[in-house]
Amino acid sequence: MKLKQQLTIAFIVSVLSLIGFSFMAFTISANEYLKFDENVISLVQGWESPLLTDIMKFFTYIGSTVSLIILSLIILFFLYRVLKHRLELVSIHCSHGWFTSSQFDG
Asked: Which residues have CB under 8 Å from 27's CB, separation 6+?
């Protein structure tokens, strides 16, 4: 795509995001958020099932600090040994290193 088209698309997305944020801010300031929350809560509770609960518990476990460290080490090993990538190791180490060290700062 040309630069002008990319900038136009970025501008449109930015304006739509601003409109959406402004709408949410207005509804919160007008105390309409309770109705919104009740609608979302009832929608999500309608999806509740034992299978979906187990799936979400799995995703919660994957998001824990210990799991992220283990997954990061596996990915680093795979990139280094199998695919022979070096630059990706630096970027992954920097992004995950900051996240995991901030978890232990207390």
From this structure: 33, 36
